[in-house]
């Protein structure tokens, strides 16, 4: 059971890393020095999907970590 949770944790973390790396629009060192448009815009399409997916994956990651902690403490 615990090995299955470890594998699930690994899959969640890799998927979350991938979704975070796809969200690199408008970020980076060039934005620090004024190379970025700082206007307001709403997220649409794939950008909105990636934001929601990253939030859900983060919640799943934390929940799975808590479950692993509880099972290991027994």
Walkthrough of the structure:
Helices cover about 70% and strands about 0% of the residues. By secondary structure, the chain is mainly α. The protein has one domain. Helix 1 runs antiparallel to helix 3. The chain is elongated. The two termini are about 15 Å apart. The mean pLDDT is about 85.
**Which stretches are poorly predicted, pLDDT < 50 over at least 5 residues?**
none
Work out the strand percent.
under 5%
* Overall mean pLDDT: 84
Radius of gyration: 17 Å
Number of helices: 3
Biggest pleated sheet: none
Count the domains: 1
Record field, number of beta strands:
0
Helix content: over 70%
> From N to C, what is the helix and strand string?
HHH
CA-to-CA gap between the ends? Answer: 13 Å
Helix/strand/pairing category: mainly alpha
Which overall shape is indicated by the principal axes computed on the Cα atoms? elongated
Give me a quick take on this structure.
With 74 residues, this protein is mainly α. It has helices at 2-21, 29-32, 46-73.
What's the layout of helices and strands?
Blueprint (H helix, E strand, L loop, with lengths): L1 H20 L7 H4 L13 H28 L1
Helix pairs in contact: 1-3
Write out key terms for the chains shown.
74 residues; mainly alpha; 3 helices
């Amino acid at each position: 059971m615990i090995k299955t949770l470890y594998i699930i944790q690994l899959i969640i973390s890799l998927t979350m890393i991938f979704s975070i790396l796809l969200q690199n629009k408008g970020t980076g060192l060039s934005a620090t020095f004024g190379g970025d448009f700082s206007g307001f815009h709403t997220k649409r399409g794939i950008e909105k999907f990636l934001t929601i997916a990253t939030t859900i994956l983060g919640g799943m990651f934390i929940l799975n970590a808590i479950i692993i902690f509880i099972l290991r403490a027994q």
